[in-house]
Design a protein that fits this description.
The complex is a heterodimer of chains A (119) and B (109).
Chain A: E1 4-7, E2 11-12, E3 18-24, E4 34-41, E5 47-54, E6 59-61, E7 69-74, E8 79-84, E9 93-101, E10 105-109, E11 113-117
Parallel strand pairs in A: 2-11
Antiparallel strand pairs in A: 1-3, 3-8, 4-5, 4-9, 5-6, 7-8, 9-10, 9-11
Chain B: E1 9-12, E2 18-23, E3 35-40, E4 47-50, E5 64-69, E6 72-77, E7 86-93, E8 98-100, E9 104-108
Parallel strand pairs in B: 1-9
Antiparallel strand pairs in B: 2-6, 3-4, 3-7, 5-6, 7-8, 7-9
The chains are: A mainly beta (119), B mainly beta (109).
Chain lengths: 119, 109
C-alpha cells in the first residue's frame, strides 16, 4: 500500500515562509485517478483541507489562504510540496499530506508534522 | 463552509456498540453521498474506515458501519475493542469544497 511522508522544519518564524514536502512511495502520483492534498489541524480544532493539486498541475486552495499558499508537484521525484507565505501564529498546526480519490475521499495519509510559528 | 458538528467525546465498554454523529447542512451531508470517516490514533497516520457514506475499504472490519439520514451521517462501531480507542473525524464533499467535523474522541472504558 502507498505510504506518504511529510518533511520540513518544525519551527518557522512569524512573517516567514512555511515549506513542506510530501514523499509518495509509489507511482500513483502520476495517475489520473488521484489528487494530492494538504490538510492541517490547528490545536484543539478539527481537520481543514487547505489545498490540492492534480498531476497536471491544476490546484485548489481554500479562499482564506489563497493569497499565501502554493502547492506544486514533481512527479519524477514522487513528491509534492506546500508553501505558505507570511505565516502567523494562527498557522501553527499539524500538517498532513494525503491522497484523494477523485472528489470522494482521502484514502492514504501521512503521519503529519507539527509546524510551530514562533519567534 | 462551516465545519461539520460531531460530539467531542463518546465512550463505551468492550463488546458494546457506540454511534458517532456528524451533522452538516443541505449543502454538504444532505446533498451528497460523499461522506467519509477517518480513524486517528495519536502519532499515527489517519486511516480511512468508511467512504461514500456506507462503504468499507478492504481490511476494515464489518464492526464499522456508516449511514446517513437527512443532514446527519453516523458511524457505528459494534463489539468495541480496546484498539478502537482513537479520534474519529467525518468529512463531506460540499460544492467544490471539503468540510471536516471537529473530531470525536472515543474512549473504551
Amino acid at each position: 500500500q502507498v505510504q506518504l511522508q511529510e518533511s520540513g522544519p518544525g519551527l518557522v518564524r512569524p512573517s516567514e515562509t512555511l515549506a513542506l514536502s510530501c514523499s509518495v512511495s509509489d507511482d500513483s502520483i502520476s495517475s489520473s485517478r488521484y489528487y494530492w492534498a494538504w490538510i492541517r489541524q490547528t490545536p484543539g480544532k478539527g481537520l481543514e483541507l487547505i489545498g490540492t493539486i492534480y498531476k497536471g498541475g491544476s490546484t485548489y486552495y481554500i479562499s482564506s489562504l489563497r493569497s499565501r499558499i502554493t502547492i506544486s508537484v514533481a512527479t519524477s521525484r514522487r513528491q509534492f510540496y506546500l508553501r505558505l507565505d507570511s505565516v502567523t501564529a494562527a498557522d501553527t498546526a499539524v500538517y498532513y499530506c494525503a491522497r484523494r480519490v477523485g472528489i470522494y475521499y482521502f484514502d492514504y495519509w501521512g503521519q503529519g508534522t507539527l509546524v510551530t510559528v514562533s519567534s | 463552509q462551516s465545519a461539520l458538528t460531531q460530539p467531542r467525546a463518546v465512550s463505551g465498554s468492550p463488546g458494546q456498540s457506540v454511534t458517532i454523529s456528524c451533522t452538516g447542512t443541505s449543502s454538504d451531508v444532505g446533498r451528497y453521498n460523499f461522506v467519509s470517516w477517518y480513524q486517528h490514533h495519536p502519532g499515527k497516520a489517519p486511516t480511512l474506515i468508511i467512504y461514500d457514506v456506507t462503504k468499507r475499504p478492504s481490511g476494515v472490519p464489518d464492526r464499522f458501519s456508516g449511514s446517513k439520514s437527512g443532514n446527519t451521517a453516523s458511524l457505528s462501531i459494534s463489539g468495541l475493542q480496546s484498539d478502537d480507542e482513537a479520534d474519529y473525524s467525518c468529512c463531506s464533499y460540499a460544492d467544490s469544497a471539503w468540510v471536516f467535523g471537529g473530531g470525536t474522541k472515543l474512549t473504551v472504558l
